[in-house]
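Just curious. Protein, please.
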Amino acid sequence: MKFACPHCQQHLEADDTFLGTTVDCPTCGKPFVVEEALIIEPPPPQVPDSTPPSPPVTDPMPETSGQPEAMPPPPTDSPKAKKTENQETKEQVLAWATIAKAKALAIALWLKRKTVATWKSGPKGKAVCIGAVVVLGIALTMAGKREPRAGTAKTITLPGGATMEMVWCPPGTFMMGSPEEEEGRNSGETLHQVTLTKGFWMAKYEVTRRQWNSVMEHDSSPFAGDELPMQLFSHDAQNFCEKTGLQLPTEAQWEYACRAGSEGRFGGTGNPDEMGWYGENGRPHPVGQKSPNAWGLHDMHGNMWEFCADWDGEDYSGDAVTDPTGPATGDARVMRGGSVVSGERWCRSACRMKELHFNAFYGGFRPVSVQP
């Protein structure tokens, strides 16, 4: 219907449900009651629709095997979808475990029948059964003593609560020393074959001040920084090892771990600039900032000289040796690896240095734990 505003005479239009209600004129903004006297043109009469309603349109059922259409999966990033995935994974694992148990039970029953039959067959059968049990026991023992792969890492807790990462170095044979043509070679590096029959765990980094202060009561290191390598004399390193149940590596263990399968002047990438800090005139750097070698050991070249258990002594004999430990006594221990103030030649894998008792500020260490 159409009607006029009694205030501004503006023609307005609305359906008949507004009749008798109060509205605001959109032109002048004044309120008024919509009365029949204001109607200009009444609404058209309602004419019933004689057209029959159309039947509902339905999609034909897809020609399938009679199975209802599957609901679309929920988004993969929704919690419901993740829960469904986890549930399905658990159900799969349980199903596999059930199948594996069933197969193991079937094999066990078959072996039991065969074993009983063999045992009852006579003396030879009994001998066969006993031999099988012995072989099985040996196999299980060997499996229990299986060694980890080279470079496998583990973490130990030191007295006082600090942790230390250790890296596995497997038993093996390598060429220790350097060839005569190696650049920067020193005397006392005769090339010879060494076999280590026992694997060992070696500290991934040089011992830091944080680790030292967790175990020891005094700290004589001149530089502040919890992740800096500890600077000390060899007898201090020995005291730390005694309190932690660890030990200094032998020279052979140290060089074997440093090389980690390499045969050149330097381990890892072979580039000394990538492997360690050297040739500077200053303080050492926090551990672990340079590239590790193939077994995951950091700072084997430069940063700090590292004490070994061997006493300084004569040159290598050149003969093949097994598990060498160096001289039984001496007045100074061997140091390896070079330091932040050393030249490149002193940081080589084969380089050996006698402990200088006035040079404690560049003496550090990394302990090992030998596999029994």
Summary: The longest helix spans residues 79-120. Confidence is low (pLDDT under 50) at residues 56-71. The domain at 153-370 is CATH 3.90.1580.10 (paralog of FGE (formylglycine-generating enzyme)).
